[in-house]
Specification:
The chain is built from 4 helices and no strands. By secondary structure, it is mainly alpha-helical. Helix 3 packs antiparallel against helix 4 (104-127).
Length: 131
Amino acid sequence: MKNGIQYNKVVTSLLLALLVSFISLVPGGPVENRDFSHLPALVFWGFNAFLIALGLTGFITTYFVWKNRPWAFWSAILIGWLYIVVVASDLGKVFPTSPDQTGFALGLIMIFDAIFAFNIILFSHKNLGHI
């Protein structure tokens, strides 16, 4: 606990919020309904495998952040940056591209995810004593 704040609980909550909201963005799901059929199968499934690995790593990291393991906060920082890159490249129409527009709900969730990710990075650095 630093300054009366248990950063491990803050980061755990932020990670869970990020991971749960990101799950709602599964292609073909209730929010993500853009067409990616033009992407080569290897690219589409490779990107999905990366996102699944990122999510699973996030859940594992969440447990160890809760346990206040210093290395887990480094993992949370990396996960936060990777989510920011994913969201920025998607909203920036860099990758993955789609002929369909990004829907309002999808864009809103991605913006919230970027905010969650930024705060994960910030509070992880605070827990590690960098700020």
